[in-house]
């Protein structure tokens, strides 16, 4: 996967339009989590040092094409200024006279944030006229927002066709990590897929069985597979109507030589609550009034040994109801095992997904994985093998 990076861009004195992810959480008029801001600092600092005029473009919330005060990006200016240690100017529109005036007032090295791109309907429609109006303020386009790259919007895709386009450092880091995960991975590759439902992850499963050597299925999803194989899963979360689909996936895995690893035992409880009374059973002996809320200790051992044989691991979806202690046990144990193998240099490990990131943070392994993607939807579409328009537009 070849794409242009800042190494290929001559930015000195140029007006550089940088698409960033500033869709940060806000509480009481203050940015309450600066993770996304921290990710884009390297690109902005590099552009500043190279004497570019850095013009930031971003969306914030869902104002649906109208200028809505509640969704103004003005709220992030002070957090951005603090994190960067540089003055950040703000323009009340991302196109038109206000944007043009703010841009023409810039000196080399300055940083300017433009108002929410989604205040204009043309953004989400990828309207060519709107993209042109954005392009009027730049000489070069840099996309540093992988998390928005699954959407073909004017600021994430359209602009790349109007100006020379480059991946920013955060985008580059994400793409390089993902390339190690599925693009050109060191084999054997194992994937862990868990979470609640098969129905939300059908595309994911069919893509993975073509690409990985072993697929570990856990969480509520495993119940549907176990039921399809004739096991009684009691009152467990299970999509019985997807039994045929589950059998088709297992049959396809045989033809693609992808080993499917299902739980052999499970932690069963009688209600869905933290610290609910629980007991471990083999998957042949699940009580008909019980619910499997986590995979059992024997399954954990099996999964760990599959990981020991692998060189690359990708992970989406917790192995159990990790929000409820002690049904987080297998997810935490496997997360720590993956972290250990990664620290030893034996494994490249990539994880992502909303609840998966929360589960890996809960297991305190966030710094030990090779890469954890916080990109949500874009990460999942990448795992599903779908093209990402914002990335394709940067290909060299
Ligand atoms: P992600 O957001 O990372 O893609 P999902 O949303 O697919 O992950 O799955 C996370 C959810 O799956 C969690 O809320 C977790 O409680 C639930 N889950 C996992 N295992 C089970 C289970 N055995 N029974 C019920 N829910 C489960
Ligand atoms: Mg989720």
UniProtKB/TrEMBL annotation:
<keyword id="KW-0808">Transferase</keyword>
<feature type="binding site">
    <location>
        <position position="151"/>
    </location>
    <ligand>
        <name>substrate</name>
    </ligand>
</feature>
<keyword id="KW-0547">Nucleotide-binding</keyword>
<feature type="binding site">
    <location>
        <position position="118"/>
    </location>
    <ligand>
        <name>substrate</name>
    </ligand>
</feature>
<feature type="binding site">
    <location>
        <begin position="21"/>
        <end position="23"/>
    </location>
    <ligand>
        <name>substrate</name>
    </ligand>
</feature>
<keyword id="KW-0963">Cytoplasm</keyword>
<dbReference type="GO" id="GO:0004618">
    <property type="term" value="F:phosphoglycerate kinase activity"/>
</dbReference>
<feature type="binding site">
    <location>
        <position position="36"/>
    </location>
    <ligand>
        <name>substrate</name>
    </ligand>
</feature>
<comment type="similarity">
    <text>Belongs to the phosphoglycerate kinase family.</text>
</comment>
<keyword id="KW-0418">Kinase</keyword>
<keyword id="KW-0324">Glycolysis</keyword>
<feature type="binding site">
    <location>
        <position position="36"/>
    </location>
    <ligand>
        <name>(2R)-3-phosphoglycerate</name>
    </ligand>
</feature>
<dbReference type="GO" id="GO:0006096">
    <property type="term" value="P:glycolytic process"/>
</dbReference>
<dbReference type="GO" id="GO:0006094">
    <property type="term" value="P:gluconeogenesis"/>
</dbReference>
<keyword id="KW-0067">ATP-binding</keyword>
<feature type="binding site">
    <location>
        <position position="323"/>
    </location>
    <ligand>
        <name>ATP</name>
    </ligand>
</feature>
<dbReference type="GO" id="GO:0005829">
    <property type="term" value="C:cytosol"/>
</dbReference>
<feature type="binding site">
    <location>
        <position position="151"/>
    </location>
    <ligand>
        <name>(2R)-3-phosphoglycerate</name>
    </ligand>
</feature>
<dbReference type="InterPro" id="IPR015911">
    <property type="entry name" value="Phosphoglycerate_kinase_CS"/>
</dbReference>
<feature type="binding site">
    <location>
        <position position="118"/>
    </location>
    <ligand>
        <name>(2R)-3-phosphoglycerate</name>
    </ligand>
</feature>
<feature type="binding site">
    <location>
        <begin position="353"/>
        <end position="356"/>
    </location>
    <ligand>
        <name>ATP</name>
    </ligand>
</feature>
<dbReference type="InterPro" id="IPR015824">
    <property type="entry name" value="Phosphoglycerate_kinase_N"/>
</dbReference>
<dbReference type="InterPro" id="IPR001576">
    <property type="entry name" value="Phosphoglycerate_kinase"/>
</dbReference>
<comment type="subunit">
    <text>Monomer.</text>
</comment>
<feature type="binding site">
    <location>
        <position position="201"/>
    </location>
    <ligand>
        <name>ATP</name>
    </ligand>
</feature>
<dbReference type="GO" id="GO:0005524">
    <property type="term" value="F:ATP binding"/>
</dbReference>
<feature type="binding site">
    <location>
        <begin position="59"/>
        <end position="62"/>
    </location>
    <ligand>
        <name>substrate</name>
    </ligand>
</feature>
<dbReference type="GO" id="GO:0043531">
    <property type="term" value="F:ADP binding"/>
</dbReference>
<dbReference type="InterPro" id="IPR036043">
    <property type="entry name" value="Phosphoglycerate_kinase_sf"/>
</dbReference>
<protein>
    <recommendedName>
        <fullName>Phosphoglycerate kinase</fullName>
        <ecNumber>2.7.2.3</ecNumber>
    </recommendedName>
</protein>
<dbReference type="Pfam" id="PF00162">
    <property type="entry name" value="PGK"/>
</dbReference>
<comment type="pathway">
    <text>Carbohydrate degradation; glycolysis; pyruvate from D-glyceraldehyde 3-phosphate: step 2/5.</text>
</comment>
């Amino acid at each position: 996967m070849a794409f242009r990076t800042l190494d290929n861009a001559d930015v000195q004195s140029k007006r550089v339009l940088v698409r960033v992810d500033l869709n940060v959480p806000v509480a009481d008029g203050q940015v309450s989590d600066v993770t996304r801001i921290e990710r884009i600092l390297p690109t902005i600092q590099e552009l500043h040092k190279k004497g570019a005029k850095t013009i930031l473009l971003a969306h914030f919330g869902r104002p649906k094409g109208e200028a809505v005060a509640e969704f103004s990006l003005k709220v992030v200016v002070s957090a951005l200024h603090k994190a960067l240690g540089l003055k950040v100017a703000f323009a009340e529109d991302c196109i038109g006279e206000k944007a043009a005036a703010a841009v023409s007032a810039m000196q080399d090295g300055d940083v300017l944030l433009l108002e929410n791109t989604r205040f204009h309907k043309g953004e989400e429609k990828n309207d060519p006229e709107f993209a042109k109006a954005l392009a009027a303020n730049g000489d070069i386009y840099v996309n540093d927002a992988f998390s928005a790259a699954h959407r073909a919007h004017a600021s994430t895709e359209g602009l790349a066709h109007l100006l020379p386009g480059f991946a920013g450092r955060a985008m580059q880091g994400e793409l390089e990590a993902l390339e190690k995960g599925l693009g050109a991975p060191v084999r054997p590759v194992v994937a862990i897929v868990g979470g609640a439902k098969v129905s939300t992850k059908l595309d994911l499963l069919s893509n993975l069985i073509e690409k990985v050597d072993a697929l570990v299925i856990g969480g509520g999803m495993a119940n549907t597979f176990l039921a399809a194989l004739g096991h009684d899963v009691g009152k467990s979360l299970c999509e019985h109507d997807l039994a045929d689909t589950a059998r088709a996936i297992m049959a396809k895995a045989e033809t693609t030589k992808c080993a499917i690893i299902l739980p052999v035992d499970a932690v069963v409880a009688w209600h869905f609550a933290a610290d609910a009374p629980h007991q471990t059973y083999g998957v042949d002996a699940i009580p008909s009034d019980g619910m499997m809320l986590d995979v059992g200790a024997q399954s954990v051992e099996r999964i760990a040994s599959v990981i020991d044989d692998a060189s690359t691991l990708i992970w989406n979806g917790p192995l159990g109801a990790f929000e409820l202690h002690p049904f987080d046990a297998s997810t935490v144990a496997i997360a720590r095992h993956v972290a250990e193998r990664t620290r030893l240099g034996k494994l490249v490990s990539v994880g992502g997904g909303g609840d998966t990131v929360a589960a890996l943070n809960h297991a305190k392994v966030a710094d030990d994985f090779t890469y954890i993607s916080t990109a949500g939807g874009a990460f999942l579409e990448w795992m599903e093998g779908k093209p990402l328009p914002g990335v394709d537009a940067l290909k060299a």
